[in-house]
Amino acid sequence: MTNGNELIESENPMHPARLICELCRNFYTHGWVTGTGGGISIRDRENGLIFLAPSGVQKERIQPDNIFVMRYKDQEYLRTPTDLKPSACTPLFLAAYTIRDAGACIHTHSQSAVLCSLLFDKVFEISNIEQIKAMPNVTRPGHMKYSDRLVIPIIENTEKEEELEGALRQAIKEYPGTTAVIVRRHGIYVWGETVWKAKVYNEAIDYLLELGVKMKQMGIPTVKN
Amino acid sequence: MTNGNELIESENPMHPARLICELCRNFYTHGWVTGTGGGISIRDRENGLIFLAPSGVQKERIQPDNIFVMRYKDQEYLRTPTDLKPSACTPLFLAAYTIRDAGACIHTHSQSAVLCSLLFDKVFEISNIEQIKAMPNVTRPGHMKYSDRLVIPIIENTEKEEELEGALRQAIKEYPGTTAVIVRRHGIYVWGETVWKAKVYNEAIDYLLELGVKMKQMGIPTVKN
Amino acid sequence: MTNGNELIESENPMHPARLICELCRNFYTHGWVTGTGGGISIRDRENGLIFLAPSGVQKERIQPDNIFVMRYKDQEYLRTPTDLKPSACTPLFLAAYTIRDAGACIHTHSQSAVLCSLLFDKVFEISNIEQIKAMPNVTRPGHMKYSDRLVIPIIENTEKEEELEGALRQAIKEYPGTTAVIVRRHGIYVWGETVWKAKVYNEAIDYLLELGVKMKQMGIPTVKN
Amino acid sequence: MTNGNELIESENPMHPARLICELCRNFYTHGWVTGTGGGISIRDRENGLIFLAPSGVQKERIQPDNIFVMRYKDQEYLRTPTDLKPSACTPLFLAAYTIRDAGACIHTHSQSAVLCSLLFDKVFEISNIEQIKAMPNVTRPGHMKYSDRLVIPIIENTEKEEELEGALRQAIKEYPGTTAVIVRRHGIYVWGETVWKAKVYNEAIDYLLELGVKMKQMGIPTVKN
Q: Which residues take part in binding Zn(2+) (chains A, B, C, D) (predicted)?
């Protein structure tokens, strides 16, 4: 029997443990988390809790019962499902929570992110595309403008996911205006103030990454002069 | 409490407030409105009402309760959902209603539309493709012929969506035979006499834009000599 | 009130009027019949009836009530839905029925078919692909072999769909081994002994057309020497 | 009447006969088994049974009633559905069971697998992509590392599926670290210790094959130096 079941049982479809399951199914249909790839965490600010999808499982088949729950203040697990391992992404999700006060963090193995990491060097850059307006300014209220340049840092991949933490933390600090970090030959981390903002940013970024790949293939610069 | 609830509550799945929700889910699966992009408005001629999806929300999660309702004759809002903003597309939808007497207007961030706006100059042109026969003549009854040339004007994008109004109105007037306007690096506006016609035109145009991108990539002219 | 309702009302999901609706939804998700494109007809040999999807409607929204029913022996309509027009494909479906004794005929605006019609001249040809084994020999029992060459004739499009009849009939006769005809810049007609065979052939052919486009793009011959 | 019905009737959605149906629908939406292509088998170790999808049917429409059941120890059919033929893949599935003690084997006509078989010679190779970590070491416990090279042998296709058995058995033995074999111009066989592992490996491999095709098209080596 797993303790802490009261933390994930709810009739409310907006409960973090249920939302994680719903969003994982959505990500699966986009091809972002096939083959157990990717992950997601939602933070419940009110109760000081962090909900985490487990490691190495089929994301589209996750049930609330499979969700880990951590206390935010001391990062202690309040709920550890039997036979499951915590996500290796956990320190990375925590980086977004502690450095940026994020409310949710999404990690995918999006092929567009991987391809952009092969086509771009230190950063992915794109400007003058309407979809950029879905992205936040981050360092000040409001959203980016159409002609703003969206810059997403690309960090090098490491053998173990946990080892990404240092580079990810550094990228977050070096690029105070970003709400995402691409990991070369790996995928992307996207966070936001709330789970819905994180979801929207992830969709908008993936749209821009996919478009960026197509523009590169056609010889069209992704940044307009 | 939001007033005007009687305008959006209905058991009828064909009610405009419910159709907007259904079509937004459909558009989401096509990848046309991810990341809060795009929008849709339906006009109820009988009751002189305009129904509008709100600004900046996840289109696939819209509920009838989120719908704005405007009186057509004086463009006054009869229903304004709490905590939501009217769509920035509203003046553009109104242009289609007032200049063309449209019954619905769809706006998407279709990647094929964006790519065509990068591959074509002043207009997107295609001819001798069967799918063109789904398009209306506009200036006279009936549909286009297979060998007709479909011409869709491309206008330049602006920082704010509202600022597109002038160029959109001008394009509508300069191209009396068009039922759509592409916005460069942004997306497309498509309208029709009814919501179903608008939906069909939007699907047929997107098919032609996608095909146009592929033909360009293969070095095949989109207009046959 | 439309007469002949008893011909389309059934609790049986395998009834032709219900199958047409189900298959049109399936085709829509494949992108084969968006924008009212395409069509399908099923023949009920036992009762000597032909069921036909109507012209110019959204295929994914068709209901049994929208289905036309024709008597095979004299090609007289037994059921004509109010406000709908018979499909312009009807003479083409009849060609497959009368010349080949088909049990169903599918017409799509598949982009892979259109692209192949632009990349190939008189016929689409492919060999040495396993999926070819899903195709019938037609002129003798059994299926094609892996190393057989699948040859699908390509006919020129005409302004009106009905005008295709002569060329389609000729192609069917000139290529006795084919169970499909591509129409240049238009789409494809695929038929089979039963509705399920027609569906399977259509899927297998579309797979091969899509693969053929990709092979052409990579400079790989579709026919192996 | 078909005997052995008690072997496939179950209220448990995790019963092999029901899982095969569910997974075939999943594979269909990925485009891996359209046109009757592909197949799947699950082994019930506890009861010494093998469940097999039938030959040449629409995979997305399979019902538990269509499933063949074989006794593992003497490979005798305990259940043979009326009017259906056993899958031609059966000897290949058995090779994975007997040589590798697999718990399930999946066969698809994945276009990415076919394309990779045209772009690569004796083996498909890829390294330094995070998704590789979803793959097992096979010859020792645990999963592959990010920088490991995934090597999947490619065997030549034969006229009849059964004839692949020799080459498949040889490839399995020559490549003790592989959990999949690509068949040139045909598709792929993927197996695993359990049905879920086989499903995950198949998804991860297909992701890598798709990425491999894109990398080749962009002139990026799939193996990092």
A: 107, 109, 186
